[in-house]
Each structure stands twice: as C-alpha cells, then as structure tokens.
Amino acid sequence: METTLLPHWRRNIYLFLTSQFLSGITSMVVQYAIIWYLTKQTGSATILSLATLLGMLPMVLLSPFIGPFVDRFNKKLLLIVPDIVAAIVAIILSTVGTLQATFPLWLIFISLLIRSIAQTFQMPTIQSIIPTMVPTEELTKINGQLGMVQSANMIIAPALGAFLFAIVPLNFLILLDVLGAIIGISLLLLIQIPENPVIDAPLHVLSDAKFGLTKLRHTRGLWAITMTGAIFTLLFMPAASLYPLMTMGYFHGSVGQAGLIEAVYSVGMLVGGTIIGIFGNWKDRMRPILWAMLAMGITFGASGFLPGNQRGFIWFLGLNALAGIATPFYSTLLMAMIQQSFPPTQLGRILGVLNSIMSITGPVGLIFAGPLADSIGVEKLFTIGGVGTLICGLIMWLLPSARQYDVTLQQSHTLEDTEITKS
C-alpha cells in the first residue's frame, strides 16, 4: 500500500492508537484488581492458574472461527460490540459485589471468561486493521508504536490499580470498565477504518478456518516459527500467570509491590517498543527476535534462583526490567512479519488460526502450573520457563527456514515492488 493511497493516514492511525491507550488503561486496572483480589483472598496458585486458564481458553477455542468474521464484517462493530458486552458484565459483577459481602468465585471466573471472549474478537481485528491503515514501509514502526501504547498501559495500570485497590472498594473499581467502553467507543466513531472488499462467497466457518490453516502451513519458515512459539507458550505461560504469587507469596511482598513489578516490566517493554518505533526498519528481523529470546530465557531462568526475601525482590525488579525490554522484540517484530506475509483480505482468517496455535499449549501448561507451584514452589516455574525459552530460541536458530524467513520475505517484497515499478 502506497502512502498516496492513504490521505491523512498518520492522523488517523494516531487517533486509533490514542483510543487503544485510553480504553486499555481502564480495562487493565480492572483486570489487575480482580487478580490481586483472588491472590489476597485465596493465596492459591491453583486458583490463579484457573483464572488465567479461563482467560486463555476463548483465544484457543474460538480464534480459528473468528477470523472469517474479521475478514467479512464491519471492523468498527467488531471492536465496539465487545466493549459493550464487557461493560454490561462489569455492571452485573459490581452489583452482585455491592449486595453481598464477598464476590462469588464462580461469578469472577465467568466475568474473566467473558472479558477474554471479547478480547478474542478484538485482537485479530486490530492486527488485521493496522496493515490497511498505514503504508507498508511504516508497518514495523507502527507496530512498535502500538507496542509502546500497550506498554504504557501496562506501566500506568498496575500503579494506578494498586493505588485504587487500596482506597476504592472492588465493587466500584470494576465500573471503570464502563468508563473505558464509553471512551473507546466514542473515539472509534471518529476513526476511518478501511474495509476489505466484500467477499462474495458465503460464510463457511470451518472451511474458512481450514483456509487459514492451509495458508499458514504452506508458508515455509513461518509454520516452523508458529510451532516453536506454541512450545514457548507451553513452558513460559505457567510462570507468567503466577507473577502476583511470586511477589506476594515467595518474596512476601505487598499488593503495591505486585503492582511495582508489573510496572517495571512494562517500563522495559516501553523502552523496547520505543527502540522499535524509532529504528524499526531492520533488514533481518529474525536476528533481534532470537537475541530477545536469549535475554528473556536468561532473566526468567535466573529469577528462580533468587532468595525469597526483599533483597531477592530487588534483583527480581532488575531482571524483569531487562526481560521487559526484550519482550517487544519478539512479539512486535514477529507480528509485523506475519502482517507482511499475507494480503489484508486474508489476514483475519490466518491470524485467527495462528493465534489459536500459539496459545493452545498455554492452557495445557496452566492445568499443571497451579498444583506444581503449590508442591515445588512458584520460583521453580520461572526457572522452567527460562530454560524453555532458551530451548525454543535454539530451535529457531537451528532451522534455516525459520532463521532466514524475514530475509526471504523482504527479498520477495523487493522483487514485487520492482516488477510493479517496471510495469
């Protein structure tokens, strides 16, 4: 897509990023508040793992079947309707929490499940929208800036959430989801989102999901990266789901310190996203991806050997800052490569399948994470996650199709541009 075909694209995309920033803060504050409530009330790794599992299941089970809707339906509605549903669920949960002394666990789990379903619709929609709103040569930088926005949310939300959690009852704090929905919907109405050409073929969810899977499997190199990413999720997600318990249980910290560790990690992500947003035009994006996996593996693995006291917590802060810097180089650069690998009219179906495959192993790990952490200690899961990350990075480096994928991809785009110029 040439810049000349997208008048005022920069103003449009930055308004979109602003909407994601403002609506994302409120949603994440509520999410953190719910997780901290569960940690404080139960202190159970099994309960936290179950809560995370419910948050991941919709991504795994529904993503392949949501892609066809993303490619066909109005994308604004696919962003707006989930916000409305999340706001309704927040009102119900707040009302029940006001009428009763405590929140029923079953209702909290249902609310987390519905919030995850809403996000499952929004994530592939946003991922497929970005390539239609910006020129191709700016795609990596804009993805980096989207990562910066998400990191900024993750910096502000834990600190703001910890402060509000201490002074505002949870039943009122949950209503921030309603405010976030109002802000997000209002800004989305002002944004111009290009729609894909109408697909005349009737909607067949199963065949469309098969189409996305076939396209992905026949993209040499990317399929290997996707399968390795699934193994990475299996080994990494159990530790990632137990951050609050690591801080409040192993290091004997407070809710404020749990918020601080999330904020420090997010500051690191913001730094990493800023580097990508400014210097995002790498000739081979697989190199920084592999270096990022090395850094993440070392920092997470080392976290499991720290002493369970406040001195260990200080080291944990430093290691998480480094891990945060590395994280966007894996997630953001990989997403930019995927977006450039397929036409925008096919992205919804392909991203739905890809997100499902890369997430499907997460629930498997989470099933064992809670009981395992309760028996051997939550810190051991960080060591397992770190070693697993290093193994996955080594696998990607050893596979030539994966290691050289971006070089091949950018060469093919260069040839296409040359042929278009000659014609």
TrEMBL record:
Membrane topology: Multi-pass membrane protein
Domain Major facilitator superfamily (MFS) profile: 12-404
Transcription regulation is among the record's keywords: no
Gene3D superfamilies (alphabetical): MFS general substrate transporter like domains (1.20.1250.20)
Keywords in alphabetical order: Cell membrane, Membrane, Transmembrane, Transmembrane helix, Transport
Alphabetical list of PROSITE patterns matching this protein: MFS (PS50850)
Pfam families reported in the protein's UniProt record: MFS_1
Regions crossing the membrane: 12-38, 44-65, 77-97, 142-166, 222-243, 263-282, 289-307, 313-338, 350-369, 381-399
Compartments (UniProt record): Cell membrane
UniProt KW Acetylation keyword: no
Top-level taxon of origin: Bacteria
SUPFAM superfamilies: MFS general substrate transporter (SSF103473)
InterPro entries, sorted: MFS (IPR011701), MFS_dom (IPR020846), MFS_trans_sf (IPR036259)
Primary location group: membrane
PANTHER family associated with the record: INTEGRAL MEMBRANE EFFLUX PROTEIN-RELATED, MAJOR FACILITATOR SUPERFAMILY ASSOCIATED DOMAIN-CONTAINING PROTEIN
Name of the protein in its database record: MFS transporter
Species whose genome carries this gene: Levilactobacillus tujiorum
Taxonomic lineage: Bacteria, Bacillati, Bacillota, Bacilli, Lactobacillales
